[in-house]
Amino acid sequence: MTSTGRVTLPIEVGMDEQIIELIQRLGADAVRNSDGTDLPAIAADLAVKIYATYFPARGDNEWAQTHTNESTHFYLMSPRVTSLRGGDLTIDIMDGYYEQQVSPDTDVDVRRMWQVHDRTTNTEVPVEQWDHEGRLVTVHNTIPGHVYTVNFFARQLWDSTQMYNYITNDWHLDPARQKQAPYDVRGTETWEYMKHTMNSWCEENPEIDVVRFTTFFYHFTLVFNTLGKEKFVDWFGYSASVSVAGLDAFEEEYGYRLTAEDFIDQGYYNNPFRSPSPRFKDWMDFQHRFVTSRAKELVDITHAHGKEAMMFLGDNWIGMEPYGEHFPEVGLDAVVGSVGSAATCRMISDIPGVKYTEGRFLPYFFPDVFNNEGDPIGEANQSWLNARRAIVRYPLDRMGYGGYLSLAVQFPAFVDRVEEICAEFRQIHEESQGTRPQNAPFTVGILNAWGKVRSWQTNMVAHALWYKQIYSYVGVIESLAGLPFDVKFYSFNDLRDGVPEEVGVLLNAGPAGTAFSGDVAWDDPELAATIRTWVAEGGAFIGIGEPSAYPKGGAFMQLSDVMGVEREVGLTLNTDKYDEPQGEHFITTDLSEEFYDGEGAGDVYSIAPDTQVLRMKDGSVQLATHEYGRGRAVYMSGLPYSTENSRLLHRALFWVTGREHDFSRFWYCENPELEVAYYPNVRKFLVYNNSEETQSSVVHGLGREWPVHLSPVGFLWMDLTD
To answer: Which GO terms describe its biological process (predicted)?
Structure first.
């Protein structure tokens, strides 16, 4: 076994001896700086690759301040203000926003770029009916009792991520720290400046091996409130990708002009839970082509200087869309991203069109964790437990950490644990010899309005952050990220010509009214008919939460006949329900008496006599199966991630495809706290403990059994060639 490689270590000035020691201990073969740290002079003498963080769209405040006409912008909405008496209504559009981050741009054609809406009637107020002066907009002839808002074009004064880092790390205590203003790549002068600066930087830094673009041009939507705290965040948001030049170019190409409301979207800002409008999808495609073409030019410059180009999947990543059509054309060598869960790990590792992928593990070496009350070891263990399931299935090529190394070394036990994690990560690659473990012989297709472009990103708000309303659905992809299945993501449009041949199971999960459940997509009768026919002819469908929800034709869930269940929304209370759990099933073999469905859809009842109800709570069906023609369906009211729920989904996927008798042939552990991966090309299997407690189990595979006993977070390789 080799003891080095595949690890990137964050370093900083003033730690030369410790850096050398840690490179040896962790087996690091690359070092990097972070936002707010500089590479020490010793970096060039370390005999490892050197990554340097590079910000194309920020970092030169002199340029930003002398080219304010080429600043990046937001489209923002004022607070909702009610006109109580009618007549004139004055709205302070900056009420609730942080003045150091954004400022109304009144240098543009305000009457063309701004809008006022009567939100009660959901109509635009004519431009002749409102005036503005700075941050104040006065709406005339308002209607008593109606609510009004202003959509305004705002200049971005402070980069969102730099602001977050500035506040989190108390950079205000350092007078040398500048608040960095971003600038827009669509500006003619700014674009030429970006290319010139890229060339100069490469020439001036010959020791740098890898340029770590963080990221390219447009930041995800992150806006702060008057207290300097996050007001709203959408990791997928395009609200900060707007510009006058961009809107003009869009109009010239597409033949119609986008308005402020196309971005404001009634205040929802086209977040990923909203069903994407055709106009917004046009903007995404337009920006994807533009951003990737400009990024390619910077990557070409990087390559011309003999350096590798790496993209950080975060910060200014909007428009790059790593699962978009044009991403491979950029020619990037690598993508690196923060690993907050198994799903986000797969989001990075599955990206096509790059030579290698790298995960930045948690915790970040920031003072919010590395303090006397923090638990850096606990966070490191949880990060590794989450990531390892995904790495086993579709491995990252590299791993690393970020932040202030000077903080991490103050916690020696944490460094010891990181050393163990790095060694285990390398061992996965070495034992598997670069091969993938065995998967089930069918593909799981995730069906929603976004499809491939949001691969491994479904039901998320801000990367891997927990929200009460989503954990019951994020658990679906979190489970799948570490289960033995090929997973692909399909939009409803992808089914226009039928269900793709490789799909063994279609899975639709999400709350009603969202892009993930489908909402208005189910108004298309051909969609439901296509899936019904496919299942009846031997296909398989799993619905979770409120799948296919769209009230129409006397049904709330359009595929209720397929699933054998319906949800009560108060319109069928006069229909009697007589549901009772009907015994155990192959799917529930490893399930405790109660099924944990998180928030659960609630008020679900069976509508077919052959629906087998497996679990109920408070009179509502939580888990059920249904035969439909020659096919099968499974319904779950929610599926938060847990080892038990992951096993439940694992079994459900085999049963719904009619392959329950093959379950043990494709390897499993009797104890759901343990998982196993079999590598047929090297005749080895890996069993790993997903808990922080000692676990025992029996591993099943190839018609054989192996008893195992694993320590907390432990693992075991078994060589079957012996």
So the answer is: carbohydrate metabolic process
Question: Within 10 Å of residue 630's Cβ, how many Cβ atoms?
Answer: 11
Average of per-residue pLDDT across 315-322 = 97
Strands 334-338 and 398-400: unpaired
Q: Which residues are catalytic?
A: 315
277: Cα separation from own chain's centroid: 20
- Is 263 in a helix, a strand, or coil? helix
Closest CA to 186 of 49, 286, 328, 307: 286
What tens digit of pLDDT does each residue of 333-383 get?
999 999 999 999 999 999 999 999 999 999 999 998 999 999 999 999 999
d(CA 149, CA 671): 56
Q: What is the mean pLDDT of residues 213-236?
A: 95
Which of the following CATH numbers is that of domain 7-57+186-218+275-432: 2.40.50.100, 3.20.20.80, 1.10.10.60, 3.40.50.720? 3.20.20.80
Distance CA 624, CA 605 (A): 10
CA distance 74 to 241: 7
How many angstroms separate the first and last alpha carbons of the chain?
18
Nearest alpha carbon to residue 344 among 403, 293, 394 = 394
| CATH number of this structure's domain 443-663, picked from the four choices 2.160.20.10, 3.40.1060.10, 3.40.50.880, 3.40.190.10 | 3.40.50.880
104 cis-preceded (ω within 30 degrees of 0)? no
Query: Which letter does DSSP use for residue 633 in this model?
Result: E
- Digit-coded pLDDT (tens) for 260-291: 999 999 999 999 999 999 999 999 999 999 99
Side chain identity, residue 395:
P
Quote the distance between the C-alpha of residue 654 and its chain's center.
27
H or E element: which one contains 647? helix 643-656
pLDDT digits (tens, 9 = 90+) for 116-129: 999 999 999 999 99
DSSP 54-65: E-TTSS-HHHHH
Q: Where are the domains of the chain?
A: 7-57+186-218+275-432, 443-663, 667-719
Q: What is the pLDDT of residue 534?
A: 98
- Structural tokens at position 554: 């006397």
Which residues have C-beta within 8 Å of that of residue 489, sequence separation ≥ 6?
Answer: 323, 445, 446, 448, 450, 451, 452, 454, 455, 456, 458
Task: Give which of 612, 494, 599, 609 is closest to 544, Cα–Cα.
Answer: 599
Q: How far is 459 from 511, CA to CA, in rounded Å?
A: 9
CA distance 478 to 471: 10
Residues 6+ apart with CB under 8 A from 558: 522, 528, 548, 549, 550, 552
Furthest-apart CA atoms within the chain: distance in Å: 87
10 Å CB burial of residue 87 (0-12, 13-18, 19+) is: exposed
Instruction: Please give the CATH architecture assigned to the domain spanning 667-719.
Output: Sandwich (2.60)
Taken in order 347, 353, 357, 362, the sign of the CA dihedral is: negative
Q: How far, CA to CA in Å, does 327 sit from each of 324, 335, 384, 486?
A: 6, 11, 29, 22
Angstrom distance (rounded) from CA 300 to CA 308 = 10
Determine the Cα–Cα distance for residues 699 and 638; give it in Å rounded to an integer.
28
- pLDDT band at 1, cuts 50/70/90? very low
C-alpha 700/C-alpha 715 separation (Å) is 16
Mention every residue, 6+ apart, whose C-beta is less than 8 A from residue 496: 526
**Using CA atoms, how far apart are residues 437 and 439, in angstroms rounded to an integer?**
6
